[in-house]
Write a structure and sequence with these properties.
2 copies of one chain form a homodimer. Chain A is α/β, with parallel strands linked by helices. Chain A has 13 helices and 11 strands. At the A-B interface, helix 8 and helix 9 of A face helix 8 and helix 9 of B.
Chain lengths: 349, 349
């Protein structure tokens, strides 16, 4: 028998806000939480201290449960040749923006979950801890579970859902191919294995006995109703919140989402080194969205940072990741509470 | 206001059987029809006389409405160089199977809807005439509509749905990326424009005022319920019928669908020249599923025919199109009436 995740978390609506690193902080999480949904904080681009501060800010503003999300990739070995090739490919753009080699950082990027982040979880005790790209090592998962947190992770195939259940997750997020941002696959990198949510969700619900949350392309009440009909206990929604005033979505990102361009998204590995869905822009068109010239995750992003900054200063999105799911055209520029309540009508109808 | 397509067609269940050229004849259509769904005959690989005979066979066995389906591609100009390159790529396989050049046909393949087929429609008056790859010329569409038939065509994007509505279709089939067999896109061949059904269906329902039928990855009652929740008036189901005894699905195709291999499908243009979804086999692995070496639709299939025949005689699917949608693992080897009634429980629950 499947436990009701909503009852356990005392949520009044089955709406989970997707953690969206780079596009939000505690303010979006608070707004969704106050409307009865599950607010989420993305930790992938934060230091432990930064995360701790955001969790405290959330707690100060909402008494609802909180989902803290981590990436858990294996950091790649240094790849000087690949990184140099990437910088060479970007060289014409550096020249165009009069950027010098000294202005190009290296070696940083997104950090995976580790012992210092586990310490933050132990100290702050969020109700939900979710992972993307699989799970961290068993000892780290055990530390999280010992805090009482429900542990979630994303599955993009039936095999991944079964693997996560075997590793002890409390719920599986079924991430359809429609989803914006990074794909969560971790067992096999063949993109042809990635399924649309209509096919993926019922097969995962059938294959595992833990609760399933549906993600990908859900941006309207009918889609919420459909996901619940397919057996999900809740939906996770990201792109539909990107135009909310509480999100930190950049000006160029908001402009793209509000334009007819939002009708077309594509998977690209250029911005980080892992496939993620976004609205095509100049870099994707110039280099090819899935070009192997970008080095392994997360090494690709550093070299783009100064280009992105320079272009955005000119109002251009040439080098900015414009993460968006396939239902991006349905996003609405309204407060997050309004969006949450609107989506929730799909759960009650 | 959207008319109820089901009421017009006097269907008791909102289940349309997908026309599947090469895998079925009137027997599958009759079985679905007798169970209250909409039976379909694929005409793409039939002569006008062959189609006429199948329609008569359907009429003799069922009093239900009938959907006759046509491809409506523009036949390509002769491409002797591309066809030769294709035969060269296949040459090692011809040698392996001791096939000689004289055994390799050319110039045939699938035929688009034309005046001789329009004559068959005028004579036999099926209740529904559906098209794939857009619509035929306006004069041919007018001849079909003059018979009283409801005209349907597939849309894979919002823009295609709007184009079809502007051309006067009576309903749009929203074909999600999950769907098995040929993709129906006709405005733009960029595959990154293709959407999962969860994102595509609500956007098409919002964009057009004609009824919408959902297709792609629907192979269980929850998926039927979800598609109706997303605003579809009916669902079109193909792969879920391929294991039925009334289908002509080949032995190697049935074996693949019944195996763990059914969990993985991929788009390939090797078998016809247009992208279609099937279970990966030797040819797809050897040449690359989307390799440009296959000539334009429908020229690719002729050169494969003798290879397919020779391999299947050995019980191998090396050169056979194993069409299947992303929910293929949910297909059941049961009579089509049982499958239809099972799916229909998703519409009443």
């Amino acid at each position: 028998m499947k436990l009701s995740l909503l009852q356990h978390l005392s949520l009044s609506v089955p709406i989970f806000q997707s953690p969206m690193a780079g596009s939000q902080d505690h303010r979006l999480a608070v707004a969704v939480s106050q409307a009865g949904g599950l607010g989420a904080l993305p930790a992938a681009m934060l230091t432990p201290e930064g995360l701790r501060a955001q969790i405290l800010a959330f707690r100060a503003a909402s008494s609802g449960p909180l989902n803290v999300n981590f990436f858990c990739h294996l950091p790649p070995a240094p790849q000087p040749d690949a990184e140099q090739a990437w910088r060479d490919a970007l060289h014409p753009y550096y020249e165009e923006h009069a950027l010098t080699p000294e202005q190009i950082p290296s070696g940083g990027g997104r950090q995976p979950f580790d012992t210092s982040m586990a310490q933050v979880i132990e100290d702050t005790r969020p109700e939900v801890v979710s992972f993307h790209f699989g799970l961290p090592t068993a000892d780290l998962v055990a530390r999280v579970k010992a805090t009482g947190a429900k542990v979630l992770s994303s599955a993009t195939t039936v095999a991944e859902a079964q693997s996560l259940e075997a590793q002890g997750v409390d719920a599986v997020i079924a991430q359809g191919l429609e989803a914006g941002g990074h794909r969560g696959h971790f067992l096999d990198h063949d993109l042809s294995l990635q399924l649309g949510l209509m096919a993926l969700l019922p097969q995962i619900v059938q294959a595992v006995s833990v609760p399933v949350i549906a993600a990908g392309g859900i941006a309207s009440p009918p889609a919420v109703r459909a996901a619940l009909a397919l057996g999900a206990q809740a939906v996770q929604v990201g792109t539909a919140y990107l135009l909310c005033p509480e999100a930190n979505t950049s000006a160029v990102h908001r402009a793209a989402l509000s334009s007819p361009r939002a009708a077309h998204t594509n998977l690209t590995r250029l911005f980080s080194g892992r496939p993620a869905r976004g609205i095509p822009n100049r870099l994707m068109r110039d280099l090819g969205a899935l070009s192997p010239v970008a080095p392994a995750f997360p090494l690709a992003s550093d070299a783009l940072a100064p280009l992105r900054q320079a272009a955005e200063r000119l109002g251009r999105d040439d080098f900015s990741p414009l993460w968006a799911g396939q239902a991006a055209a349905q996003s609405r520029a309204q407060p997050a509470a309004t969006v949450t309540q609107w989506l929730a009508t799909g759960a009650s109808a």
